[in-house]
Amino acid sequence: MSRAGDSGKSSAAPSCTPTLDGLIVYEEAVDRLVAAARPLPGRQRVDLRHALGRVLAESVDSRIDVPGWDYSAMDGYAVRAADCAGSGVELPVSQRIPAGVAPGPLRPGSAARIFTGAPIPEGADSVVIQEVCEPVDGGVKVKAPVEAGANIRRRGEDIAASQQVIAAGTRLLPQHLGLAASVGVDELVVCSRPRVALFASGDELVMPGRPLTPGKIYNSNLFTATALLQALGCEVIDLGIVEDTRQATEQAIARGADQADLVLASGGVSVGEEDHVKPAVEALGTLDMWKIAIRPGKPLAFGHIRGTPFIGSPGNPVSLFVIFLLFVRPFILRLQGRDDWRLRPMLARAGFDWTRPDKRREFHRAASIMPPTVRHGSRFTRAAPPVC
Q1: Where are the domains of the chain?
Q2: Quick one: residue 179, left, alpha or beta (phi over 0 = left, psi -120 to 50 = alpha)?
Q3: Per residue in 254-313, pLDDT tens?
Q4: CATH topology assigned to domain 71-153
């Protein structure tokens, strides 16, 4: 009921929370964007020294068994278990086998001094560790019975010849390069590097190192986006700072589309008088998606310029970072032929209150007080923080 003197309308303050009318929900938006990404054609054969961070185009199969022979897992003595059935057996030492030496057959009734990694001599079926042995004149005393097969690593136990060791689509990390080398592979066939043309819109932007005059801010987005792209193995084409005019914006977008596999822009994607990205994209090509029901980053622009995809992010540094992780990163992973583009959620208890919920999906900056615990068999370890 209204009070005397009221017009009959509610006196409550109007809500400033945006509605979801015309906005695309996050899940639909990222699915549509990724569906438009086409793995890049072209492959390249590179030396292992230059393969770090690249995406493998052809799987790697082992050329050899690993290990390539039965070898000793310990320092000790190679023997026949039947010759050491009791305690205190003494055997003459017939040969010495360090790693890297091809041994001769084990003489019956003898032992061979052997070291970790050395091949097991023909005729031996066990290695007795040196801790239960006692050197004697010209031989060795084995102080405990020996079990057949003890302390021997078998040929092919780790990797069998022709076994796949690295699957196509894998982003190559240092351990992958070591694994390839361990099976005799010196070159890898990798996918083409995505070329990404990058520019920032804004008359207020100044490059770091130059004087900061009133009304100007430093262009931090260039360095954030460049580092994120390089971490994904991209080749970055720097188009610089673009002034806030329709003509300059169209020229930058067109130049990027001619040189790159993806054009990425920060700033100028909203609806203000100085925001020229949306009309520029529509004039040069097609705008396939705009306005996402997320916060920050609602005015995401996605389209194509003469077949080259374009993604435009708000100029706010936090918005750029969020848009990159939510949309640009999955898109680039698909350009590289990878299927692991979806974000992996991690359940955690928030240590803060959510006092002003939005109707849009919100993404908040947070820090983990303690890394999540990951179980490996019966052991627990702390997981490393995620990287690109």
Answers
A1: 26-41+193-335, 43-65+161-191, 71-153
A2: alpha
A3: 999 999 999 999 987 776 666 788 899 999 999 998 888 888 878 889 999 999 999 999
A4: Molybdopterin biosynthesis moeA protein; domain 3 (2.170.190)
The DSSP bridge partners found for residue 199 are 240, 265
| Structure tokens given for 309 | 């995809």
* The pLDDT of residue 355: 78
- Provide the pLDDT for residue 357: 76
Q: What are phi and psi of 314, to 5 degrees?
A: -60, 160
Q: Which residue reads 């690295």 in tokens? A: 166
pTM, full prediction: 0.73
Determine how many CB atoms are found less than 10 A away from the CB of residue 255.
Answer: 16
Q: Distances from the Cα of 183 to the Cαs of 70, 135, 158, in angstroms?
A: 16, 38, 11
Helix, strand, or coil (residue 50): helix
Dihedral, CA of residue 42, residue 47, residue 50 and residue 52, to nearest 10: 80
State the alpha helices, DSSP H only, in the chain: 26-35, 174-182, 221-231, 246-259, 277-284, 317-323, 329-335
Pick the CATH number of 43-65+161-191 from 3.30.43.10, 3.30.9.10, 3.90.105.10, 3.40.50.720: 3.90.105.10
Q: Which residues face 176 on adjacent strands?
A: none
Rounded CA gap, 75 and 113, in Å? 8
Q: Which of 228, 314, 216, 194 is nearest to 265 (CA)?
A: 314
DSSP run (H or E) holding 241: strand 235-242
Say how far apart CA 374 and CA 380 lie, in whole Å. 6
Angle between helices 246-259 and 277-284 in degrees, nearest 10: 50
* Residue-by-residue DSSP string for 125-182: -EEEEGGGEEEETTEEEE-S---TTTTEEPTTSSB-TT-EEE-TTPBP-HHHHHHHHH
If one counts every other C-beta atom within 10 angstroms of the C-beta of residue 126, the result is 22
CB 320 within 8 A of CB 314: yes
